[in-house]
């Protein structure tokens, strides 16, 4: 068994970037406020998994837990992966879709957006996704206001 416990958030500049990724992808997935917590490996920890994990999401799909002591790139991939699980839970898919399929879809979601490795490249990647989101909101707004 692998044991983990809740721990404090990583230091700047990592934390603000992870929070921003979490917020942007929550909007993209149509999720309301999702809690963000960090875990660390801890032999005495009460959180138990049968394998090594980079993160997990709460049963109610309203919070994600990310391994604090892995590379930023992996943390961001894990945020995407776990948020996808949150959206599956929001849609009730834990009852209607097999675990294997949900896992595959979360992996595909990670791959679809494939965050880069370098922190500055991550900034640019995120800014591009934010612009796309704003554009979609603007188009929907204008369609409703002006019709077409
Ligand atoms: Zn998963």
CATH topology name: Zincin-like
Strand content: 15-25%
Distance between the first and last residues' Cα: 58 Å
Helical fraction equals: 40-55%
Residue runs with pLDDT of under 50 for 5 or more positions: none
Query: Count of helical segments?
Result: 5
How many individual β-strands?
Answer: 5
How does the overall form come out from the CA principal axes?
globular
How many independent structural domains? 1
Heteromolecules bound = zinc ion
User: By helix and strand content, what is the structural category?
Assistant: alpha+beta
Sketch the topology as an H/E string, one letter per element. Answer: EHEEEEHHHH
Can you list the strand order of the major beta sheet?
3-1-2-5-4
CATH class: Alpha Beta
Characteristics:
single chain, alpha+beta, 148 residues, Zincin-like, globular
